Amino acid sequence: MHASTAEHSLQQLYSEHHGWLNAWLRKRLGCAHNAADLAQDTFMRVLSKDSDLPAIREPRAYLSTIAHSLMVNFWRRQAIERAYLDALSLQPEHYAPSPEERELIMETLLAIDAMLLRLPPKVRQAFLWSQLDGLTYAVIAERLLVSERMVKKYMAQAMLHCLLLEQAG
């Protein structure tokens, strides 16, 4: 598609549906500021895709699908931030990290969360039970209805993902 045609199509999509999308997000988020941010992020995502805008038959369905995905990510990030801040509030004040350290910790937690989401469900569950709950492989195997050997394979897969995450960082 010619650049000016794509630009015109995006402008038209934006002008015709931005207000609707913003209201749709505001209703779900209960916050005008976050809704405005996610509406902008949605159009930025549309801009970054190599899609043929004139070929979109249901623009509101298209936009709401993208916005919903962004909203789920927003809620996950909020939940992780709340959990981190709750854990931090239980620490003595002299252990409080600096704002820069907190930001690095949050980035790391979000990267770990994203890595865990990429794992198959049984691998993720085995890893979390082992690392967070301290369950033995035998107990995990029982809970997942698999062999202990399969749990070892799951753990190896999860550890490989952790190593790849560490190398990327």
TrEMBL record:
Stretches of the chain forming a coiled coil according to its record: none
Highest taxon of source: Bacteria
GO terms under biological process: DNA-templated transcription initiation
Entry keywords, A to Z: Sigma factor, Transcription, Transcription regulation
InterPro entries in UniProt: RNA_pol_sigma-70-like (IPR039425), RNA_pol_sigma-70_dom (IPR014284), RNA_pol_sigma70_r2 (IPR007627), RNA_pol_sigma70_r4_t2 (IPR013249), RNA_pol_sigma_r2 (IPR013325), RNA_pol_sigma_r3/r4-like (IPR013324), WH-like_DNA-bd_sf (IPR036388)
SUPFAM superfamilies noted in UniProt: Sigma2 domain of RNA polymerase sigma factors, Sigma3 and sigma4 domains of RNA polymerase sigma factors
Keyword S-adenosyl-L-methionine: no
Protein's UniProt keywords contain Transcription regulation: yes
Membership in a protein family: Belongs to the sigma-70 factor family. ECF subfamily.
The protein, known as: RNA polymerase sigma factor
Organism, scientific name: Pseudomonas turukhanskensis
